[in-house]
Amino acid sequence: MLTFTEMLESERFGAARAEIGVIEGLATHFTSEDMAARITWRKWGAGPAVVLLHGAYGSWLHWLRNIAPLASANSVWVPDLPGFGDSILRDPANRTLDGVGVSLARGFREIAGGEGEISIAGFSFGTRIAADMASELGARVRDLVLVGPHAFAERVEPQMKPRSWRAIRDLDEMISAQKHNLAAIMFASPAAIDDAAIYIQMKNTFFAAIAVRAPAHAQFWNALRTRRGSIAAIWGEEDVYHKGVLPRRIDELRGRCPSARASIIARAGHWAMYEQANSFNSILRDFVSGTA
């Protein structure tokens, strides 16, 4: 019988903790605070700013395999969204994180300064927050990149159902449950699920302080409609939320945002930036450098 913390600290995840520790050790930490949230930011690198926003039940660790490559030519700012990771949401009843995009925009101005163009990329639920943040920052946001967005009229449900894991106290059983859940939702290939992915999923979901609820689709599309800078979308080809309908997703996006660019990553699921990190990093660098 192990506690959840003992599982995370087990020898099995030593290499995962070491990989994370290297990236964490290179970060500079900042905090922004307002009436809605206390937000922890991590920053790597120097150059044009790129802000990365994680998905629901996540943390900065959603971007573990992308930070260092992007930081070779950019300053990379990665907050934990309020209610996740190290950030605090003042009102736990705010399950749609209404107003958090504004808190992020104001916090970024406070800690990074009010000048210079930036790019923002959001993943999954974070695409909605990214759109709100971009709307608040206006013309300063040159590029808005939406990774696995799913605020679309046609809904696709994953075929595999996640397993309950909170009562599990055996490490092998926990790993089996987490692998199942990652295969059900996040990955195209179960063979790509490594110990770091399992560790990140365990840590992120266990320490999530709120159960998010998606806001109305109209809020997302209204934020995009006001954009003056570029919009791009990236999907994994095997993303369970979009499987079989990606051409229609792209048509709907371009119907609403005619200049939007789109890219599909082969052999990738919902967590495309982890499962096919090299392909994703190349595409994202092109989008934020203006070469795509």
What can you see in these coordinates?
The chain has 292 residues and is an alpha/beta fold. It has a single domain, classed as Rossmann fold (3-Layer(aba) Sandwich). Helices cover 39% and strands 17% of the residues. The protein is built from eleven helices and nine strands. Strands 1, 2, 3, 4, 5, 6, 7, 8 and 9 form a nine-stranded mixed β-sheet that branches. Strand 3 (49-53), helix 3 and strand 4 form a beta-alpha-beta unit.
Distance between the termini: 51 Å
State the order of secondary-structure elements, H for helix, E for strand: HHEEEHEEHEHEHHHEHEHH
**Stretches with pLDDT under 50, minimum 5 residues:** none
Q: Domain count, please report it.
A: 1
Structure summary, number of beta strands: 9
Number of alpha- plus pi-helical segments: 11
From the alpha carbons, calculate the radius of gyration and give it in angstroms. Answer: 18 Å
- Per CATH, the class reads Alpha Beta
What's the architecture in CATH terms? Answer: 3-Layer(aba) Sandwich
- How big a fraction of the residues is strand? 15-25%
Largest sheet: 9 strands, mixed
Key attributes of the depicted protein:
single chain; 292 residues; alpha/beta; Rossmann fold; nine-stranded mixed β-sheet; 11 helices; 39% helix; 17% strand; globular; AB_hydrolase_sf; AB_hydrolase_fold; Pimeloyl-ACP methyl ester carboxylesterase; AB_hydrolase_1
SSE arrangement:
Blueprint: H1 4-8, H2 14-25, E1 28-33, E2 37-44, E3 49-53, H3 67-71, E4 75-79, E5 88-89, H4 100-112, E6 118-123, H5 125-137, E7 141-147, H6 171-185, H7 195-207, H8 217-225, E8 230-236, H9 246-256, E9 261-265, H10 272-275, H11 277-289
Parallel strand pairs: 3-4, 3-6, 6-7, 7-8, 8-9
Antiparallel strand pairs: 1-2, 2-4, 2-5
